[in-house]
Amino acid sequence: MEFGVLGPVTAWDREPVELKGPRHRAVLARLIVARGRVVPANVLVDDLWTDPPDGALSALRTFVAALRRAIEPDRRPREPARLLVTEGPGYALRTDAVDAWKFEASVKATALPELLAGLRLWRGPAYAEFADEPWALAERARLTELRLQAVERVAATRLELGHAAEAIPDLDAHVTEHPWREDAWRLLALALYRSDRQGDALAVLRRARDMLVGQLGLDPGPALTRLEYDILNQATHLAPVGEVSAGVAPVGDVGAVAGAAGDVWEETAAAYDRAVGGRRARIESTVGLLRNLAVTGGGGLEAARRHRLAAVEAAAELADPDLTARIIGAYDVPAIWTRSDDEAQAAAIVTAAERVLPTQDHPSIRARLLATIALESRGSTKARPREAALEAEQLARGLDDPALLAFALNGVFMQTCYRPGLAAERDAIGAELVTLSQRHNLFTYEVLGHLIRLQSACARADHTAADDHAAAADALAVRHELPLVEVFTRWYDALRADTPEAYRAAATLLPAAGMPGLTDGLLPLALATHAIRHNQPIAPADYGPHTPWIYAAKAPSRGGGALVPPPGLLLEVHWALTAHAARQVGDDELLAAARQALEPAAGEHAAGSGLLTLGPVAGYLN
Q1: Predicted pLDDT at 260
Q2: CATH homologous superfamily for 162-275?
Q3: DSSP state of 605
Q4: pTM of this prediction?
Q5: CA 360, CA 300: separation in Å to the nearest integer?
Q6: C-alpha closest to that of 6 among 106, 78, 155
């Protein structure tokens, strides 16, 4: 009888063995993880059920009995079990026939056929159906790391044997899937060079540099740097087989920047590389770099957004929920716009945060995870994001951590657009952020507070207050080099100027903003709102996500109700557009729905974004 855990958990004896349900396989997998040691029955019960039901121990005995019948079909009644044995307070699996253990032995081999045979044992991720079980995390992480090392050992062995071209396809796929592994990049570049593809080798090294700088904020290590230098100079030692060591290089060597020994950045990077040695520490410190990168401008924001999920996935790959929770919660970049720039990535971050949240007891970590859920669930109509925001705020107010409270308030702000007429509530959040930030020198959140208050002032048509907050935000942006602030304040200037030319001038800032959730369709929308307020026809254009509200009266069947706009800072604008479209075609049902939605904002202007306006909401209630 043989057992497999390098993929879905299975057993076979020439033919696959029926293991019945998932808890049966879980018992078998848990015993395999124990590597022959006895696992007490009460431990198995706790591992099988989060909240063990009455009779759980009896159910466990039933699972064990069924497993014994499956894996020892020839055992006679009352004959002692040979494989799944009872010892003392628990059970153990007595076997050496496990694919993971055979794989481990193959990794220690030096011959290429044995290495390849070991890799062929993998049918999928280790313990595939138990990826989130705490008892499997460490073993899954260990086996995954061994597999990655085995792929690189196969490549290194092929290079030593003079089979460079054969190593290229697998290495190319390997670095694409695992871009953090420097030695894989080095092996791929070397394999290309030895296959007479010098240009491709240099392109790979540039690609590696882009990935490592983007994800770690540091230059490639000395092995990659030296290889690039040697390829450029066609060093003779690259040609002979087996000259280049297959050791793994540390990240962050500063030798790649020739002639800059006195540069402060380079010296700091070198100090970082000497001080930070472990992969966990490197991943965790990356988030601080990404957080700073996100506020430097469009390119930085896009890079930070792109590599943030990679950092979360890298932490999850280590099967360390505490590290993953810290990585997720550390990205406390202030957010002002209520539509996501990357909905798929945001959903992945929320999923990761929800997955590790139950493992975290410390209130500050829980608050950061909950605030992240609230921030990344922009535009959601579900109750969960708002509940998460309020819980994060409650936790943060019980701690002496001003930055955490600011982060939590940002999450609450993001969830205060669930109905029209909440500008005053957002203004109170902005006011607290400004006061809190000034007291504790949280300048990015001070900017956020002023922008929130600018938006709220626009909703109240209090342009004197809005002017003051715009000026305060601009001053902070200049002092602290925050170029993205100008996007919002220049668009506010366009709102004040109220001309198509002003909107078009403001739109020139959008391509470099790195905020597609803001940018998509914004200029056509601004021009449409201007046209409506001046009794002009709306021009045909690509309105992006705003299209349904521009053409609300021509929308597909509404199933007996209005097409409801998503929560956001443009909620009043979208409903006002709906009311305008309904009036144009005489759709009384749609007009009634829009009026009912807008009623709470009767005393406001449809200008809560601070970017554009449809004028007084009351004008759409008649």
Answers
A1: 35
A2: Tetratricopeptide repeat domain (1.25.40.10)
A3: B
A4: 0.61
A5: 31
A6: 106
